[in-house]
Amino acid sequence: MKSKKELVPSYIRHLEIYQAGKPIEELAREKNLSRISKLGSNENPLGPSPLALKELNTGLKSLHRYPDMHGYQLKSELSKLFKLKKENIILGNGSEGIMACIVRAFLAPDEEVLTSERTFIGFMVLARSVGAKLKTIPLSADFKYDIPRLVENITEKTKIIYIANPNNPTGTYISKQEFDYFMSKVPEHILVILDEAYFEFVHTQKDYPDSMDYRYDNVITLRTFSKAYGLSGIRIGYGFAHEDLITNIAKVKLPFEPNSLAQLAALGALHDADHLAVTLQNNQDRYQETIHLLTQMGIGFIPSVANFITFDMKSAENAKRLHEHLLNCGVIVRPLDKNEMPEFLRVSLGTKEEMQHFSEALRTGLIKKF
Ligand SMILES: Cc1ncc(COP(=O)(O)O)c(C=O)c1O
């Protein structure tokens, strides 16, 4: 019989399991707290759209049926909205579910993926899980993807380039000009993954390169219902690309992903312009209040266009202590040591009450511990 070591490929053995934000119930159990503000996972603090819930309800009585594996209704809506054919759309269990299919479809062991340091770890875990090699380029001094350096590092080995725009955990974005320059330098045989999980928060910025304005055959755009649409828990995301890419991704996808309730909830959310507008307004208001608070407290932060702010505690030790203090107060933020930013913490923008909780806990943390 084979030893355990031989059963598991070394790239899986050395892979670290992705650490998501702490769940509310876990902290409540550990600390025996009743007031908890979960500001660690960039979720929509206002909850799911009421229209999504209504659609979900209608789907409950059909749970004995398998989902529509073609996602007809949702793809029809998305194709109307973005003026695309259904053949250009893929649905999945969150945008990460689609990323998992992309790495399975296009990457083989030892092939090279080019991306930035301090970007979305979920993608890196997935690329490593198929044995791919990651080449990561430092961010620029202003915490943005360094497009010129990324371009300089394209070689004949490069198979996929991953760009999160806006980036998590920095909240920065690459401009139209940078994107145009980048695309002018990327050979057509290289696949570009454009991860736009925070698209709804930024697309009104004039110089944001809305990928729907472009039609590159080697670009896959990924979007999600997890963030602005408030559906993280049900797992649904979508992608757009040339139909040849979509067909190959579909070959490795589980046939019934995303599930029927997720498809219905997404349809409802897509029609709920009011909920989206209130969400974006809350985000803007909380952003202004939070940067005001951080400035008042003398804490540096990275200007963000998304629904979170990453702030600088100047040392890993300070960040760790404040993180612990916030947890003790019932406030969950995200430590960033896994993103190679151990001196920073990331706070998602919550409701007014949640940000008040964060503000109180931050103030007592700074007074007591620093
Ligand atoms: C940049 C980025 N991409 C993708 C995801 C995953 O989103 P989903 O819930 O759609 O899998 C996240 C979640 O935090 C993210 O920050």
Structural category:
alpha/beta
How many DSSP E strands?
13
Helix content: 40-55%
> In total, how many domains does the architecture comprise?
2
Bound small molecules, by name, code or SMILES, are: pyridoxal-5'-phosphate
Description:
There is one protein chain. The chain has 370 residues and is of the alpha/beta class. The protein has two domains: 4-47 and 274-369, Aspartate Aminotransferase, domain 1 (Alpha-Beta Complex); 50-272, Type I PLP-dependent aspartate aminotransferase-like (Major domain) (Aspartate Aminotransferase, domain 2). Helices cover 42% and strands 15% of the residues. The protein has 15 helices and 13 strands. It has helices at 4-7, 10-13, 24-31, 50-60, 72-82, 94-106, 121-129, 147-152, 176-185, 199-202, 243-252, 260-271, 273-296, 316-328, 352-369, and strands at residues 37-38, 89-92, 112-116, 133-137, 158-164, 191-195, 219-224, 237-240, 300-302, 308-312, 331-332, 334-335, 344-348. The strands form three sheets. A seven-stranded mixed beta sheet has the order 2-8-7-6-5-3-4, sandwiched between helices. A four-stranded antiparallel beta sheet has the order 9-10-13-12. Helix 6 (94-106) crosses helix 11. The structure holds pyridoxal-5'-phosphate. Pyridoxal-5'-phosphate binds at residues 42, 94-96, 120, 122, 164, 168, 195, 197, 224, 226, 232, 237.
